[in-house]
Amino acid sequence: MAKPGKICPELSLVRGDTQNFPFTITDGTNPINIAGYTFAMQLRVTPDASTSIAFTCSITDAAAGKMTCTLSSTDAVNLVADTSYYYDVQMIDTSSNKTTIISGITQPIIADVTRP
User: Fold this and answer.
1) 1 belongs to a structural domain
2) Is a pLDDT exceeding 50 seen at residue 39?
3) Which among 34, 26, 50 has a CA at the least distance from the CA of 102?
4) What is the pLDDT of residues 42-87, one digit of tens each?
5) Cβ atoms of 49 and 67 closer than 8 Å
């Protein structure tokens, strides 16, 4: 669940893997209808780093406040093993107001071993 401003536990990521993170946006108790909203999620080595790795975020059930952020394997291959990244998820309403709903630091990236 995600309540605006919540600090999230560390995410665990594997370099090169497609990774999906489902969220339910709530007011603390009840789901918020997120129809018309958009979401953005990025990873950065430091909060102010100029380069980022972006997730694709999509609403899966607006009335129930459900959305998912996905990191593609193509982008995940750029993660640096044994490095932690800062991340957050922003919610943008229909008036373009942005609210950071979750933020945190990943666990050190797990190196992938199997590669094509």
Assistant:
1) no
2) yes
3) 26
4) 999 999 999 999 999 999 999 999 999 999 999 999 999 999 999 9
5) no
Q: Give the pTM.
A: 0.89
Structural domain total, the chain: 1
The answer to whether residue 116 sits within a structural domain is no
Q: Over the chain, what HEC string results?
A: CECCCEECCCCCCECCCCEEEEEEEECCCCECCCCCCEEEEEEECCCCCCCCEECEEEEEEHHHCEEEEEECHHHHCCCCCCCCCEEEEEEECCCCCEEEEEEEECCCCECCCCCC
Distance, in Å, from the CA atom of 82 to the CA atom of 30, rounded to the nearest integer, reads: 37
Read off φ and ψ for residue 112, nearest 5 degrees: -80, 150
| Residue 28 domain flag | yes
Domain membership of residue 115 (yes or no) is no
Q: For residue 41, give its domain range.
A: 6-105
